[in-house]
From TrEMBL:
PANTHER family: PROTEIN ODR-4 HOMOLOG. Keywords: Membrane, Transmembrane, Transmembrane helix. The chain crosses the membrane at residues 484-505. One of its GO terms (cellular component) is endomembrane system. This is Uncharacterized protein. It is found in: Membrane. Belongs to the ODR-4 family. It holds the Pfam family ODR4-like. It comes from Rhipicephalus pulchellus (Yellow backed tick). Its main location: membrane. Residues 99-118, 280-305 are annotated as: Disordered.
Amino acid sequence: ASAARRKLASAVTFQLFGAQVEPLQLHYCKSSKYIVLLHAHSSVTSLKAVFDMGRTVAYDDHVQKLINELVQVKNSLTVGVIIGQSTQQRDIVVHIANTPKKDDEESQEEGDVKQSHKSLGAQADIEEAWICQHAKQVTRMLPGGMDILGLFAVGTPEELAAAQPKLRQVLFAVFKVIAKDQRMSLNSEMSDRIQLQICTLTRKITCKTFDVTDHKCSARPADWKPAVGPSAWHRLETSLSLDLWVALSEERCRQGLLRQIQVGLEPFMRGLHDARALLNGEARPPDESLATATDRRRSPRAAKDAPQNQYLVDLLLPLDCGSGGCSAGGEVHGPTSCGASMSIAGTIQCRGFVHAKATVQEAVKAIKQDVYRSITSRCEIQCEDMLLIEDEQHDPSLVHELPKRVFAPLGDRGLTLCDYIFHGDAACDSLEALQELLGLDVSAGDIELDTEHSPESNQQVIDGVETAEIITEATEQLSRGRNMLIPIASAAIAALGAGISYLLLQD
């Protein structure tokens, strides 16, 4: 590579006002994706200074207001998560949320442990497992396109200095948990994550990034700067109808319910990854800018006053992605011994946001991310809730009503976050979660409760799942051709909360 650069540098010369200038050297940084041209005789120090510039992290007035509030409180060391969108050029921060303190009962249970760590000072306030759990729950509440970008810490200079090793350790631990499934992240190839330190005395903000895939990496400085002009976002929406049938082998039946659901949904998730998308009924090139030429020509004042750009997305999935017995190649391989069947039916509302300069490919990826994240989150919440109800764990024939999704505004920028509530829960049940996990102060009237509707009874779910008809229809369609596509998403479909019907086959 060095020889190639020298050869290229010797070949690249420029004529400036008739005089030949010195050749340049081309350098490429893998982590930052920067390409830099330097004087052929530039020192290594000059090159390092250019590459050490790091990423740009942009924030808006909403984030600055939250930082000001944190600095004024001046409590003990405060740690939380940074929420936003990561692009190839920069990171865009839209919200920061404190990790809540443990309640009295949990604190009492770990009293002996905390007593033995009093000498650690600020590090004793940083509990790795607790912060990781908070980050996981916050991830479930994010729309498509939004991710956890890093962690922040607010404290005195002494507290921040003492906690630095622990903060680095927790940052790596958080993204080890989040990155277990790459489909949960919009840009999984971007491995740089933010560590933001805010001093309560001087109000100095120090922003660094770490490559969380390299435990030996050192911190790189990042440019923490306010966004220029008002924040503009594109909103993507789709309603996804699910009607899946899964046959489970006797061996699979001995596993936990969550694992059974994950395996059963895997063919559908593979089809979702390969799905084609229509934006407002139109197929567009993936590299094309999402904003139209008319949108780009608007003045900043007009862009601020104009309503948010919204796109309705239709997803076209491969025909054979709805069968739990299909392999990646499309061949049907059912279990040799079927011990149970699982049907998943319902309609869910999905939503994503991308930045103003996003491409069509980024927009499609954001809505697919939300579909995957929403389905996965509902199943996890349902199974976690079942751990508290022992009778349901041993019921051989049961209908599980998955929680429905509600949305809440994030400031006045048109962005929304979400929560999941069960049938019979009211808006006030979400207010507590939104406040505790995200620090959002919203009223019950601000929450969108009607985007999805729970079935009136379990029988409504059962009636919607006709196993024999599904098998017959799927077999007939597969015999006609495997390359067909099924339009399964349309914003015109009335949303109905999804349910899972689990039937144990008897001898």
